C-alpha cells in the first residue's frame, strides 16, 4: 500500500507528496539555518504521518511535546537514568507507542548520553518487535558532531555510535532516521551520507551551500540559490520525494511549538525613578527567598557505595532472623561447573566478551538457585579460563596442574585460558592443540593470532616450542617438567588433532 504524505506545494503550485514507504527504506536529511523552517517541516511530516506509522522524536528543546495533545504522543522526560531510558525504549518498540523524548533542561553532555541510551534501547529491541518506526532527530549536529568539541569524549562517542547505528544499520530493524541539522559541515559525514532523501533550506555559508549542492547533484553556480530561499521553502530530492531537484513550500501545521520566533513589542512607559525602584528594590516574593549557599558534598567512594548496597539487602528490622541452610561446598562447586559448561556449549560463546558471558552466568545461577554469593567478575574469569582448558576436576598429575594454575596467574586474563589449554595437554601428554583450537579459545578466527600467543608465551619463558620431523608442534613447559605430544598445527579442531596423532 502506497501512502503519500502531503508536504505542501511544489514550485508549479501542485501538491508535493512524500512516499512514506519509500522514506522508511531510504531515510531523510533536512538542512537549513536557524529560522529557515526546519522544525516547521518536521512538524508537518509528523502530523501528516502520525496515523500511519509509529514515531519517535528526539527533541533537544522541548518543541515537539505539543504533539501529545493532537496525535497522542507520549512525552518521555530524559531526566531518568540511562538504564531506565533504555528499558523504556524497548517497551516503546514492543507496544508500538509514539513518543517524544524531551531533552529540555539538560546540558549537552547529558542530552547526548540520554539520546544514546534511548536510541540504543530501540536499536537493541528483540527481533519480534522490529516494527517500522519513524525516528526524528532535531538538531542532529548535537548528537553526531563532525569533530570533537567541548563535550566529554565518552559522551560524544556513545552518541555518535547511536546515531551511526540509526542511520547505517537501523533500516533492517525497522528504524527510519529523519535527521535535521543547521549546518551540514558540523554533522558527521558517515551519518549524513546514509540518507537518500534531502530537503535543503536556506543557508549562507559557502561550505554548507557547496555540500548541499553536491548532495543534490547541482553545480557550484546553482549553490547560490540557497541564500535566496524564503522561510519554509526547501529544495527536495530523493526516491521518496522527487528524482530531480524540486522546490517545495511546506504547508501549514495544526500544532505549534512552545517556543516561537521573537516579535517586536513596544517598550513599557516607565519613569526613570520608577525603573530604579523596580530593578534595585526586591519584590515581595523575592524577600521570602533565602539564597542557599553551600558547597557540594565530596564524592562518595565507590567502596562505600557498594557497602551501602550490600547493607540494603539485609533483612528489614522487626523480622526474626531465619537460619540459612548450610551450604555444601561440593554441591555448590558442581552447580557452578554445570552452569559454566552450559555457557561453553554455546558455539558462539568463544567469540563473546567476558562481560556478556558474566551476565549470562549470573542469570543461569539464579535459575539453578546456586547457593551462596555469586562469583565476582575476576573469579568468574579465572573459572572460565579453567573451563575453557577442558578440565573436569583435577588432572592425573595434580601437582603439575597446580603449578600451571600458578603460572597462568602472571598472564593477562584473556590469555589464561589459552595457556591452560596448552598446559593441560602437556600434563596429560596429549597432542599440542592446533592453531584453530587455540584461536577459538582466545575468541578469534585468526590462526595467525593464535601463533602469536604461543610466541608470547615463549618470550615470557613459560613455553619452549619445537617441531618434529613431520613439522608437527611440541610445546614443552620447563617449570612443569612435561611437554605435549606432537600435534598438527593445521588441524581443524581437537578431534582431528587426536585422530592424526593416533594415525
UniProtKB/TrEMBL annotation:
GO terms for molecular function: ATP binding. InterPro entries: ATPase_Atu1862_pred (IPR014588), HerA-like (IPR008571), HerA_central (IPR002789), P-loop_NTPase (IPR027417). The keyword Ribonucleoprotein does not apply. Pfam families: DUF87 (PF01935). Residues 16-76 form the Helicase HerA central domain. Gene3D superfamilies: P-loop containing nucleotide triphosphate hydrolases. The keyword Nucleotide-binding applies. Keywords: ATP-binding, Nucleotide-binding. SUPFAM superfamilies: P-loop containing nucleoside triphosphate hydrolases. This is ATP-binding protein. The lineage of its organism: Bacteria, Pseudomonadati, Pseudomonadota, Alphaproteobacteria, Hyphomicrobiales.
